[in-house]
Amino acid sequence: MGFSAESILLDRNSPIPLYYQVAQRLEQAIEAGELAPGAQLDNEIQLADRLGLSRPTMRRAIGYLADKGYVVRQRGIGTTVVRSRVRRPVALTSLYDDLASAGQRPRTRVLALGIVESPHEVSEALELPEGTPVLSMERQRLAADEPLAVLRNYLPVDLLEVTHEDLERTGLYARMREAGLRPHSATQTIAARAASAAEARLLGDRRGAPLLTMQRTSYDDRGRALEYGDHFYKASAYSVTVTLVGA
Amino acid sequence: MGFSAESILLDRNSPIPLYYQVAQRLEQAIEAGELAPGAQLDNEIQLADRLGLSRPTMRRAIGYLADKGYVVRQRGIGTTVVRSRVRRPVALTSLYDDLASAGQRPRTRVLALGIVESPHEVSEALELPEGTPVLSMERQRLAADEPLAVLRNYLPVDLLEVTHEDLERTGLYARMREAGLRPHSATQTIAARAASAAEARLLGDRRGAPLLTMQRTSYDDRGRALEYGDHFYKASAYSVTVTLVGA
DNA sequence: GAGTGGTCTAGACCACCAG
DNA sequence: TGGTGGTCTAGACCACTCC
Questions:
Q1: Among all residues of chain B, which has the CA nearest to that of A226?
Q2: Residue B210 and residue A222: Cβ atoms within 8 Å?
Q3: Closest Cα to residue B231, out of B208, B203, B204?
Q4: What are phi and psi of B122, to 5 degrees?
Q5: What are the tens digits of pLDDT across the range A178-219?
Q6: Taking CA atoms, what residue in A is nearest to B60?
Q7: Which residues on neighbouring strands pair with residue B185, listed in sequence order?
Q8: The most confident of A90-104, A160-174, B123-137, by mean pLDDT
Q9: From the Cβ of A50, is strand C under 7 Å away?
Q10: Alpha-carbon distance A138 to A114, whole Å?
Q11: φ, ψ at B228 (rounded to 5°)
């Protein structure tokens, strides 16, 4: 259960930065309970000395953990491991990942895939002139053969090639990563509304049933819009959980 | 429209850190369009020299902006202002704040306030034995005299004293801050469902109308649960927008 | 090769908290 | 008064990108 800083092995020839090596090791120790919740870390100077690092480098490692919510620093007091249990960070994940990790054997049915002239709301999100051709897809998510959600996604045409098989096998985000498209930030809006007749039909639900909806636009490094998604979920079968740290 | 680093005035006697003064000024410049999207910043050395700062301090200012998603740094290339427009960070905010900043003149009606034995779900969220007395409150949010939401919140009894006036004047989170309770992290679950008859009555809506719901548990520094909230919103009047940066 | 950001060092002084 | 984290400096070397 104990933990001593000496057990952190540093590889100075690794391309992985030293501060990151330290941070990773400390994160592991916290996750594994070696550093118990409430435990106080040694002060920065001692830790730095013991690891043969300068204080700024050690501080950077600790700062990384503080940003992620693992530890709290208090001037004059010291640095302590935070007690809260849930640490799932906000991240860009797809419903497919969520379902897969929940062991629900999700299935995807591709309802449509092709090039279309971009509708108004898509043009706005992707910052393209209205009517520009965009790659469009509509998918239905099912678990245990029950439809759970309908996902409509749009991408600028030149960014990605994608097949029915890609979408049914791995999901859009995995395909985008394969193609070197790395989402850097995203804005999503979550809301609710009553299902229209057409929406209800796609979900095997009745008209007026509550839907959870999400619109998301993803951007790359340079702020170029990569993808716009307009999704709706059967309310009884889905929820969104986020963990917020800070402020 | 132009922007020159020289226009950043530093106060070395201020208790506000230099890196933060610089970051704030740059953030303003970006928000105001003085630094246009896509614009390239001067390199770190030049900026540091021009402001009379060391490079690490200048780097820290830029790093702060990069974390917030305002700029992107690319090795060998430079630092550029990101093109996406929406930058609202994920944060712990209350509906009251949201409405106030939207200029909607929100009003709060306190429906109930007192000590009750904690119901099952509250006990679980706050990690208290079932039946423990907890501070309980039920509030209705209105804008333009239309009910928008119903908020039920529960706190351990010994943490906070709160009056009807506190709740109607400033909101629960403001009162908690006054009392020195500083939420450090929170987990929230957002979902949707159809309104029951009782819920519909409180919102002036019909039974079965779609609701957006949120459950939130807030924790302090040490991971103690501070507050549990169970809220529902008229779906037509509310949505949640988050901006995610990273990964 | 020239220019950029990424990392790291070895110091220094300060503000805050506890005893 | 002593210990802690918070800030800041003035350098150094490296990895990467572009020409």
A1: B84
A2: no
A3: B203
A4: -70, -45
A5: 887 878 778 888 889 999 999 999 999 999 999 999 999 988
A6: A60
A7: A245, B219
A8: B123-137
A9: no
A10: 9
A11: -125, 130
